[in-house]
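Entry:
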Amino acid sequence: MSIKENLEKIKRNLPEHVTLVAVSKTKPEGELQEAYDAGQRIFGENKVQEMVDKWENLPNDIEWHMIGHVQRNKVKYMIDFVALIHGVDSFRLLKEVNKRAKKADRTVDCLLQIHIAEEDTKFGLDKKEMYELVASDEFQNFKNVNITGLMGMATFTDDDNQVRREFKQLKSLFDELKSELPKINTLSMGMSGDYKIAIEEGSTMVRIGSSIFGARN
């Protein structure tokens, strides 16, 4: 099946309220252009330099999402154009994004990444760290970042019950956080292998790569 057919198939199964991020990391620009020509406008990258190169060469109405782990020294390269940073997993990173966004005279949307998986390899804040961050005086004074919701990755496992449990946990944290940050509206959870469960558990944004572009290069 072509990229266009894959996209159409996925979109047919997505509820209206769920946003599709096409995960285009490692994919050549020609394949992104194919997805773009099929109507896709939101692309997710996990390396800043690769995203910058693609941003320079591809249509300028693309909305670029940084979905990978971000090193603070790389923030400055993407701050002029990134639409949403999914993986804010520390206060220091958020502080850097705010500082750079202020210089660029813009406000950047961010998701707090929460650690829900039983694997140690995944980045993210735990519940206590999340609450400490949003309660801090310094956070209240950040004028150039806008926390729009949460992101999390489930354990990479065939056990659907475990995946569902982890997504449920993230959704309940999201609902709790709404009392502190009433404007949050994005719950980014679910990838090619588990996005259907994620949507059942309340996801509003899914990050899908291999089901659109085929296996990773």
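The first strand starts at residue 19 and ends at 23.
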